Amino acid sequence: MKSGSNLEKVLTAGHFAFTGELGPPRGANVEEVRKKAAYLKGKVDAVNITDNQTAMVRMSSWAASLLLIQEGLEPNFQMVCRDRNRLAMQADILGAYAHGIRNMLCLSGDHQQFGDHPQSMGVFDIDSMQLISMVKKMRDEKTFLSGAELDEAPNMFIGAAANPFAEPFEWRVHRLAKKINAGVDFIQTQCIYNMEKFREWIRRANDMGLTEKVYILAGVTPMKSVGMARYMKSKVPGMDVPDEVIKRLQGAGKGKVAAEGIKMACEQIEEFKEMKGVAGVHLMAIEWEHKVPEIAEQANVLPRPQVD
Amino acid sequence: MIVAKRKPFDEIKDMLKGYKKVLNVGCGTCVAVCLAGGEKEVDVLNAELDMARRLEDNPIEISGFTVERQCDREYLEALDAVVDEYEALLSMACGAGVQFLAERYPKKPVFPAVNTSFIGVNQDVGWYEERCRSCSSCVLGMTGGICPVTMCAKGLYNGPCGGTNNGSCEINKDQPCAWYMIYERLAAQGRLDCIMDVVPPQDWRNQTPRTVIQPGYKKPEAA
């Protein structure tokens, strides 16, 4: 075991992993975190805690992660390269580990121009690839990025993102290979709607032997409405929403679109369970945490395995 | 070249409000080429300042003097004989020129008339685009002649990120994704192996003032 995290145990034991996501509040509202956490408890193996997502200031991801630990859930601490330099990152990794955080997800981060402080300086001292290798170095070589020895290593289970849909498509598997070479243990993908393209991506990853070196969790976000689907298609960079998805939601009829969205997500999850190279699902129910129990039930992923 | 843009007129006027006799020093090199601070721009700005101050009933005596390069002592020397006649200096050079001027005449207030923008190229008359951040460790050989530090909005060394959007950057559809371009160019050249390995973190020690001494030269004993 690299970290001994629940997520690592579940994946290592060969179970189909199921992770969730929780966005920290735009304020110091502890109750909001506890409320969202309660919906996820027992329904997922770990919960991603986003780090100033979409470049909007929120409660820090490590702090919200600690609240989750208090509630008896396992956080997957997200860290973006936009807001901190290598000193602050390493310090936060040590602090997070000291407080019991065992998983982390290494990301570039949305550009600051999208958020509520577009005037800010984007740090990007290191990029997501370099962050992965830095955490691995801290864990496996027990040294800082500088090479200096550290006093007790942060044994993190190291995650990263992958977008199977962004162009150039041919480069996507090579970028995945680079992340594996950098030292990543698990991958959570961008939200998948274009199943055909995803099947092709995972086929290529299988052919290159990559899925034997890393656990891939397929990203699923149920559509709440036709408007959401249209927004994701046209406004969210790197998102691939085929017209059939929008058509099917439109055909669901008034008041039944959200249920149809959940049904579509569950169908995807069923396919992922059987798909070679896919080790689990990462469910991003954006501001829909209260629906997670229902989705988990319908997707037949309960009860979650207990691995010692 | 170094590209600059003239500051808003009111900002310049405000900086000079307490002075009645000012010398506006233009620069005949980069900022002249990019139409921001050469001889012509000195004349235009001086005429505007003269008129505005007259309208305010607070006239200013403003002269112009454009040197070949404000970042070169050899050319600044010509100013020595005239500087004493003025209360303050306005510089239309880049930030390096302004500082070199202020360093040479430490008793004179020196004000910048342009905002130094970037190192860039001339796309057309009056249209300039940034191409170099002078990071001090050039990777253009590996990236097909496209700078990831300058052209990628996140300055990524291992791109593209997940926000690459059909060849555009996530920040703007009109902004090409640097790493998409890098991939396309290297693929066309059969050199994708250049970007297969993880590039290690950059040495950003360029954040303290840098010095270059070319081979065969040395730093003078006393400047």
Automatic annotation (TrEMBL), chain A:
Q: In which pathway does it act?
A: Amino-acid biosynthesis; L-methionine biosynthesis via de novo pathway; One-carbon metabolism; tetrahydrofolate interconversion
Single GO biological process annotation from the record: methionine biosynthetic process
Q: What is this protein called?
A: Methylenetetrahydrofolate reductase
A molecular function annotated in GO for this UniProt entry is: methylenetetrahydrofolate reductase (NADH) activity
GO (cellular component) term, any one: cytosol
Q: Which family does it belong to?
A: Belongs to the methylenetetrahydrofolate reductase family.
Instruction: Enumerate the catalysed reactions.
Output: (6S)-5-methyl-5,6,7,8-tetrahydrofolate + NAD(+) = (6R)-5,10-methylene-5,6,7,8-tetrahydrofolate + NADH + H(+)
Keyword tags: FAD, Flavoprotein, Oxidoreductase
Q: Which organism is it from?
A: Desulfonema magnum
Co-factor(s):
FAD
The UniProt record lists the keyword NADP: no
Keyword Glycosyltransferase annotated: no
TrEMBL record, chain B:
Q: Where is the Methylene-tetrahydrofolate reductase C-terminal-like domain?
A: 111-205
**From what superkingdom does this record's organism come?**
Bacteria
Q: Sorted alphabetically, which Pfam families does this protein's record hold?
A: DUF5981
Fetch the InterPro entries from UniProt. DUF5981
The name under which this protein is listed is: Methylene-tetrahydrofolate reductase C terminal domain-containing protein
Q: Which organism is it from?
A: Desulfonema magnum
